[in-house]
Amino acid sequence: MSNTVVDFTKAKIVQRDQVIFEAVDLKISKGEFVYLIGKTGSGKSSLLKTLYGELPLNFGSGQVAGFNLFGLKERQIPNLRRKLGIVFQDFQLLNDRNVHENLRFVLKATGWSEEAKISQRIQEVLTRVGMSDQGRKLPYQMSGGEQQRIAIARALLNDPELIIADEPTGNLDPQTSMEVMNLLKELNKNGRSILMATHDYALLLKHPSRTLKCEGGRIFEVVQKKAEA
User: What global pTM score does this model have?
Assistant: First the structure.
C-alpha cells in the first residue's frame, strides 16, 4: 500500500484556458501536515480545486487518495470526495437546519442509510471537535470559531485520507484562529493528513511544518523558522 496521499508529476493545471502551473511535482505522505502559502491569485485555490476534482487534470499525472486525477470521470468525483475532507474559509453550513441535520445531510448524500449509525457517527465527530452538546443549534446561533469546528467535524464524517483546509482561519480572530489551528494539529498528531492553505503567517511561525509556496507559476518548498519564545 502506498504511503503517499498526493502524488503529482509534471501536472499542468489550467483554469478557464489560463495555465496556472506548467509542471507541478508534488508529494504529500500519509500523516503529513503541509501548509500552502502564496499571494492572492498565485494559484492556491486552483491547486486545491484540482485535488478535489473541481478542475480537471488533462496534462501530466496526479493521484490523490488512490484516485488517478488524469481523465477522472465525472461519476468518479463523489467517490474521490468521500476520501477527502474539505474545510472552507466561510464554513458553508446550511443555515436552514441545525448542526445534526447539517451533518446528517452529508452522510445521507454519501451513501449512509442506517439512522442509528448516522446518529452515532455524528456524535463521534462532534465529540472529536469538542462540540458534543451543540447538535441542536442552528449555524447563526454559533460563533465563527464554533461554526468552523462544525465544518471540521463535517470533514471528518467519512474518515478521510486527506483534509484540505482552504484558509480555515481567514474569517476568525487571532485567539479563535489559534484554537482551530490547535484542533487541526491534534488531528494530525493522530495520523490525519492535512493540507492547509493560509495567509496567516503567525500560525506558521507558531506551528512550523512543511511549507509549500505558490509563486510565479511554480510550487516550491520554503523553510519556515519557528517563532522565538
Answer: 0.91
d(CA 92, CA 86): 10
Residue 197 DSSP SS3: strand
SS3 87: strand
Instruction: Tell me the per-residue pLDDT of 193-212, one tens digit each, with 9 for 90 and over.
Output: 999 999 888 888 899 999 99
DSSP string for 4-68 = EEEEEEEEEEEETTEEEEEEEEEEEETT-EEEEE--TTSSHHHHHHHHTTSS-B-EEEEEETTEE
Q: Classify burial at 180, counting beta carbons within 10 Å of its beta carbon; exposed 0-12, middle 13-18, buried 19 or more.
A: buried
Q: Which is nearest to 121 in space by CA: 139, 140, 108, 137?
A: 108
Instruction: Give the residue from 226, 212, 213 showing the smallest Cα distance to 32.
Output: 212
